Amino acid sequence: MKKLIVALDNENRQFAFVKGNRPTNAKTVKAKEKSIQEHGQLSPVTVVKGEDVFLMSGHLVDLQGNDIPDDQTEKYYAVLDGQHRVVAWLNLGLNLDDLVICEPLNAEMEIAALIAEMNICTTSWKGTDYMAAPAMALAAKNEVFDFAVKLQGEGFPLATISLWCTGANSLKPKDLVACVKSKELPRAFGDAGWFHRSVKWYKAALERIPNTFLAKKYLITFLIKKFNHAEDPMLFSSQMEEKLRSLTEEQVKEIMTPKTEDGVSREQATYDMLEKHLG
Fold first, then answer.
1. Which residues have CB under 8 Å from 36's CB, separation 6+?
2. What are the extents of the domains in the chain?
3. What pTM does this model have?
């Protein structure tokens, strides 16, 4: 790989992403592939050494989103800006030795702030993109945040992630951004009580229902309402887990594509089907 403003490094490093940074978009990758084929690489990919991310309490994932052990970070360059370009380059089967990379020009900025600033300056961020901030602030493992990052990788919007992880609209972009300075996760990640229930529902539902539907608010909103009105919450939780696993293909089809009648919205029809099969 050609290097600009990168300290001498004789090791052959692979590329990795910073955990919590926004996931790549297939449509954008395709556009980058076309651009590279026609014009080549137009701008360098900004990277830092993987161990520098770890030293700032960050963590790495491989290009498929799998966690990389912290004791292996020295084998990687962490991509701060240019994730789509890297994936497109690899998809095209091009020689990595021809890919131009560079380190950030401002070496004083913290990595979380660099990620946010470089991406905000190119494409407006949406709610889940701000999760890069708490990812870099995370000094110890947090199972609720790990679940949030998993859902982020599946394309869940921040509002739905908040419902699955906390049972309420507790996660806000401003709170995630504040992590860059505070070095602490938002309070919403501190209570794992709801998560321990919802993650079981999520895994049970995923056996029958695709993430494209689970990413919408319908199921989790339905579950929250039912749980809040349950006479025996613990019994409800276990029973709902079984009900979700017992859904038939026909029932799932009715829930995902409900028939609507005059005066009944698609949203209401969806909730009616959830009540019919899970109520």
1. 85, 88, 89, 92, 94
2. 1-124
3. 0.59
